[in-house]
Amino acid sequence: MSPPGGLEMVVFWTKKAARTADLIQSVTAYGKADPKAYGVLMDDLRSTASRFADAFGSNDERGVISAADAYGQTLVGLGKAAKVPIVTPAHAAAARLARELGGAAKSSGAGGGDVGVAFFSDAEAAAAFTSRCPEGLLVLDIRLGAAGAHRRVPGRIETFKKD
Q: Which domains does the chain have, with CATH numbers?
């Protein structure tokens, strides 16, 4: 599936590895302690992910941005409830900047650091995000497309394929 035509994505990294097992353990403990509230948050994440996929598949870049922002906000709520930093201060700063520029940014994967992605409906906003990316974050020169994720290295392109 190709991204919506006008969608610009900027991938960024905190330069630190996240301890996914610790995050999962804390969220699991929260789920056991308050299953009803946990269920509401999980349902919200699932429905927002579905909205994101539907918007992506129907070439609706504004819908992608809206769903990504909502998903990131729900991750903030889940982190607060589970008392674990799913959304780090650096990722929160990236989300604020992306919103200021008309886009959205969220952590990727289990959260707690590592990689995030910002979504914009125009190249100028993506470029402004890249040039103003919050301290502590490194913008990665990664492009997504039909051939998969690529990392441009001077003189060559590395392609990562799933075995």
A: 8-159 (3.30.70.890)
